[in-house]
Amino acid sequence: MAKILVVDDEHSICESLEMFLSEKGHTVHAAGSASEALSSCSRLKPDVVILDIRLPDRSGMEVLEILNTTPTPPKIIMITAFHDMETTIQAMKTGAYDYIHKPLDADEIESAVDRALNVLKEDREAVIQDVPEESCHSDEIIGKCSWMREIFKTIGILCRSRTTALIQGETGTGKELIARVIHRNSPFSAEPMVTLDCSSIVETLIESELFGHEKGAFTGAVASKPGRIEMAGEGTLFLDEIGELPLNMQSKFLGFLERREYTAVGGRRVLHSRCRIIAATNRDLADMVRRGEFRKDLYYRLKVITIQIPSLRERASDIPPLAEHFLKKANRELGTAVCRFQDGVMERLQQHPWTGNVRELENLVTAAVIRSRGKVVLLDEVETLLFGSQSMSGEESSSLSLSHAEREQISKVLSLVRWNKSRAAQLLGITLPTLRSKIKEYGITPSSVTLP
Ligand SMILES: Nc1ncnc2c1ncn2[C@@H]1O[C@H](COP(=O)(O)OP(=O)(O)OP(=O)(O)O)[C@@H](O)[C@H]1O
Ligand SMILES: [Mg+2]
User: Fold this and answer.
1) Residue 239's domain spans which residues?
2) Nearest ligand to the C-alpha of residue 318?
3) Cα(47) to centroid of ligand 2, in Å?
C-alpha cells in the first residue's frame, strides 16, 4: 500500500484518480496547484506523485525539478494533454519516472504506479545494502570457475619469459584483454605493445605493415615506414585474427618466427627482433590446418603455449561476478549510481546463450544501466533487452526496428557522454569512424536525444 499524491487543477481528474487508486488499496491525497503540491509533499512524503504539467500557478515541470532535488524524492508520473516530443523528452530528462497522456487510461495509470512502486521498493532496499565502491582495475580479468583459474596460472607462467602464445576463443571471450594482461605483467611491460589485426588490412599491405617498407618499395611508398615488428621493439606484438593471415604471408611470418630475422619490403638490410608474439583467433586453427587453409608448421610454432578461453555459456558461474563488475564499470563511466540487480536477474542472465560472450554481457549491463530509472536493474528491463538482442540476431528481424533501436541507443549514449564521440564509440563497442557514419546515416544531432 502506498501514499500517492495527485496534482491536477481539474477537479474531476483528481476525483476519479482518487477513487480508482483508493480502490486498489492506496492512500490518495489531492492538490490543485503547484504550491499546494509542494507543501503537501513536504508534509505527506508521498511515494508516488501523479503530476499534471499545466497548473494554474507554476508549471508541473518546475515542481518536478524541485521535488527531485529533495533527499528522498517520490517517483513522479507526469500527466498531460500535450503530445509533443519536446515536453516528453524534457520531462524524462528532468527525472520524471513516467509520462502519460490524457485522456487517462486506467490500466496505464495502474501499471505505471505499480512499476514506480516496484522501483521505489528496490531503491530503498538498495540504499540499505549500499556497499562502498571498490577500486577495480580496468584490465582486470574476472573469473572464478576452475577453467579461468587455470588460465590465470598459464598467464603467470607466460609472464616469466618471452614465449610465443596463442589465445583461442569465440568472439568476445576476452582474447585481447588477456593479451594486454600478459604484457602488463611481463618484465618488459615498459616496452610497447603493438597490435596488428590481420583481418582489418588488405592482403597486399599486410607484409609492409608487419615488416615495414623502404621508400619507393611500391607505388605510394613515398617514405620509408617501420613495420609493427620494429614498433614493438622489445615489447609485445599482438597479432589479432591470425586465422585471416593469407597463406603466402603465413610462410613469411613463419620464417621470421624461426630465425627472428626479416627484411622490410624493398629493403636489403636484415633486421632482428626479439619481441614477444601473442596471436589470437576465434577460428578453429586445427580445423583450418586440416582443410589446408593454415600452415601446420606455423600452427605448431604458435601454439607453444595455448590459452583456450571457454565460451561464456560453458562457465555460467562466472556470469554473476562479471555482471557485477560491469555494473560498477558502467557507473564509473556514466556517473550513474545503479547499485544492484533485482532478484531473479542473475538466474535469467545465466540462462541466456550469450553468442557474443562477455562483450555481449557487458553491452547488456551498460544498456540496462543507461535505461535504469532507479538504483536497481530490474528483471523487466533485462527481459526487454534480451528480447531485443534475440530478435536482432534472428534472421527475420525487421530492419526497421533494428535500425530504430540502434539509432536510439546511439543518441542515448551520445547525450550521456555529452557528445564525446570517442567515449561514445568505446561504450557502444564500435569504432569512431563507424560511429561517425552512423551519426550521419541516422541524422543524429545533439538535439535529437531520445529517452527510453
Ligand atoms: N573475464 C573477463 N573479465 C572482465 N572483462 C572481460 C572478460 N572477458 C572479456 N571482457 C571484456 O569484454 C570485452 C570483449 O573482450 P575482448 O575484446 O578482449 O574480446 P575478444 O576475444 O578479443 O573478442 P573478438 O574476438 O571479437 O576480438 C572487453 O571489454 C573486455 O574487457
Ligand atoms: Mg579481439
Assistant:
1) 146-309
2) 1
3) 47
In this structure, the answer to whether residues 285 and 151 fall within a common structural domain is yes
Which secondary-structure segment (H or E) carries 3? strand 3-7
Relative to the CA of 282, which ligand 1 atom is closest?
A: 25
Q: Are 216 and 104 part of one and the same domain?
A: no
23 occurs within a structural domain:
yes
Residue 141 lies in a domain: no
Q: What's the structural domain count of the chain?
A: 3
What is the CA(172)–ligand 2 centre distance, in A? 7
- How many Cβ atoms are within 10 Å of 82's Cβ, its own excluded? 15
Residue 136 falls inside a structural domain: no
Q: What is the pLDDT of residues 270-292, one digit of tens each?
A: 999 999 999 999 999 999 999 99
Whether ligand 1 lies within 6 angstroms of the CB of 282 is answered as yes
Q: What is the Å distance from ligand 1's center to 236 Cα? A: 18
CA of 220 to the centre of ligand 2 (A): 30
CATH number at residue 423: 1.10.8.60
Is 175 close to ligand 1, i.e. is its CB under 6 Å away? yes
Check if 172 has its Cβ closer than 6 Å to any atom of ligand 1: yes
Return the pLDDT at 29: 95
Q: Which ligand is nearest to the CA of 179?
A: 1
Of all protein residues, whose CA lies closest to atom 9 belonging to ligand 1?
174
Closest approach atom of ligand 1 to CA 309? 21
The answer as to whether 280 is a domain residue is yes
Say whether both 425 and 332 belong to one domain.
yes
In the chain, which stretches have pLDDT less than 70? Answer: 83-84, 127-138, 389-402, 447-452
> Using CA atoms, how far apart are residues 179 and 137, in angstroms rounded to an integer?
15
CA–CA separation, 84 vs 233, rounded Å?
A: 59
User: Is residue 82 domain-shared with residue 162, that is, in the same domain?
Assistant: no
Q: Which atom of ligand 1 is nearest the CA belonging to 171?
A: 25
Per-residue model confidence as pLDDT tens digits over 4-29: 999 999 999 999 999 999 999 999 99
- CATH assignment of the domain containing 87: 3.40.50.2300
Which pairs from 118-123 meet CB under 8 Å and 24+ separation? 118/378, 119/75, 119/373, 119/374, 119/376, 119/378, 120/47, 120/48, 120/74, 120/75, 120/374, 122/342, 122/374, 122/375, 122/376, 122/378, 123/374, 123/375, 123/376
Distance of alpha carbon 365 from alpha carbon 324, whole angstroms:
9
CATH of the domain at 266: 3.40.50.300
Neighbours of ion ligand 2 (CB under 5 A): 176
**Three-class SS state of 321:** helix
Distance (Å) from CA 81 to ligand 2 centroid: 50
172 & 276 share domain: yes
